Amino acid sequence: MSFSGEVKQELAKHVSPARHCQLAELAAILHFCGEFGRDGEGRYAIGLQTENEMIVRKCFTLLKKTFNIDTDNWIDEAKMQDLFHKIGNPEDVVSSLLLKNSCCQRAFLRGAFLSVGSISDPSKAYHLEFVCPTKEKAEQLRSVMANFEVEAKIVLRKKYHVVYLKEGSGIVDLLNVMEAHVSLMNLENLRILKEMRNSINRRVNCETANISKTVSAASRQISDIEFLRDAYGFSRLPAQLREMAQVRLENPDAPLKDLGQLLDPPVGKSGVNHRLRKLSELAESVRN
Fold it and tell me: Which residues, 6+ apart, have CB-to-CB distance to 165 below 8 Å?
């Protein structure tokens, strides 16, 4: 099962104990992928535009708990009117009366994600989105998310308005808001592994660059020293520079700190660097 499927499976199993939260989640499902109407014989019916069985089961679980509507029986007119009165027209946005409490807003976001949400595999990329049929519903979703300090964006994709998040931290926050805690922990574990890999790669790249830089510098130093030896003569060098030149030639791969310990008396890294720079400047002067 995909990560998105795992999140929906967790959300589908989560049923709020409070009726007002159940109504908010049911409203989200019916407003994003549901429709009311009559069948060919004039009987009332509720339809869902989805192929996901989890959403269908969750919707009818909520219908049973909130309106005692059973899928085995046709909906009578009184129950249908009550449902329509409390849930509202699916073509419109969900009534603000159903979203007064933060717990109801959480339930609303769960229902919306079950209906029109998806999330990419976090081991590859961070992307969560809701594909909304109208701009108004997209704006309502973004507004409810903002109440929890989750800042989403909206983009038009063909005829749909897509509310999306592309930051791992924002997706984690939204999973927490929707109370998908198992999925949240799985995502956090993947984020930690990804950050560790990226950190290791950065360190390896940095160390490789430093090694390359050190090798290149040592190569130039030895080239300058060999040039001075052949074209200028070590005997003409000051004692400190002559000793430095000989130690570098005898230890072409040694770092500056180790070279300093081979001098008599030993000097620090900066002292070694100073003497090697003097040798390079002298070599450049002789070449010119």
Answer: 126, 127, 128, 129, 150, 152, 153, 171, 174
**Strand pairing partners for 38?**
44
Distance of alpha carbon 45 from alpha carbon 80, whole angstroms: 9
CA nearest 151: which of 138, 169, 137, 170?
170
Whole-model pTM? 0.69
pLDDT tens string 11-62: 999 999 999 999 999 999 999 998 877 777 777 778 888 888 888 899 989 9
| Residue-level pLDDT at 35 | 80
Which tokens go with 233?
């003569």
Distance CA 181, CA 256 (A): 53
Q: 253 is written with which tokens?
A: 């791969």
Helix (H, G, I), strand (E, B) or coil at 222: helix
Domain 3-193 has CATH 1.10.1240.10: no
The mean pLDDT value of the chain amounts to: 87
Query: What type of residue is 9?
Result: Q
For 155-181, the pLDDT digits (tens) are 999 999 999 999 888 999 999 999 999
Compute the distance between CA of residue 279 and CA of residue 249 in angstroms, rounded to an integer: 12
- For the chain, the structural domain boundaries read 3-193, 211-287
Terminal alpha carbon distance of the chain: 71
Dist. CA 105–CA 94, nearest whole Å: 11
- Check residue 75 and report its DSSP letter: B
Residue 110 burial (C-beta neighbours within 10 Å; 0-12, 13-18, 19+)? buried
Specify the DSSP element, H or E, that contains 277.
helix 269-287
